[in-house]
UniProtKB/TrEMBL annotation:
Keywords: DNA-binding, Repressor. It comes from the Bacteria. Residues 2-62 form the HTH tetR-type domain. PANTHER family: ACREF/ENVCD OPERON REPRESSOR-RELATED, ACREF_ENVCD OPERON REPRESSOR-RELATED. PROSITE patterns: HTH_TETR_2 (PS50977). It holds the Pfam family TetR_N. This is DNA-binding transcriptional regulator, AcrR family. InterPro entries: Homeodomain-like_sf, HTH-type_Tx_Regulator, HTH_TetR, KstR2_TetR_C, Tet_transcr_reg_TetR-rel_C_sf. One of its GO terms (molecular function) is DNA binding.
Amino acid sequence: MSELREKIIETSLQLFSERGFHGVTVNDIVEHCKTSKGGFYHHFKSKDELLYVIHDTFISYVLNEANRAKKRYDRPIFQLHEMLKSLVRVYDLYNEHIVVFNQENKYLKQEYEVLIKRKRDDYKEILKEVIQEGQELNDIRKELPTTITSMSVLGMVNWTYQWYKKDGPKTIDQIASTYIDIIFKGLLTEEALEEYERSKLSKELVF
């Protein structure tokens, strides 16, 4: 990513957060960046595309991490561990992006909304598949409805943006470890939980 492109994104995050999407013009952004409109339009077709890029950045991150976890581990419980870790870490890496997303997503143009929804749905499907495969291996309790379970996990973690602070009493890895501990003790069978607690990944948890 070019230095100017990154600066435009950082500036727009600050301005959108303070004034809202419609309270900020391209002129405002370029003025704060000390660049020209030509510099802006070299990187973004419009302010609408800029809002899309802000949304897409963190959604692409968690989706890429989920696919990486699927390739790296054969066992669903280890895939789930890595997915949860990255899903929580996104609130530290892209906290401003997520705040702007939740504040301004209603202004996202339909063409961009379709692209974002597709990636969100892809992530939900991967999570659902991992849970289902874990149930088939008797690692995750079979009596738990797969869809409700996956949506419950997302609902729990997605609320993090409301209260997480970078300078808070717990680090993002400590928060991730707490989520993993709560979720695994609720989802895993006794045998799978015992095996997980002996694993290298479990030893990485910090509280």
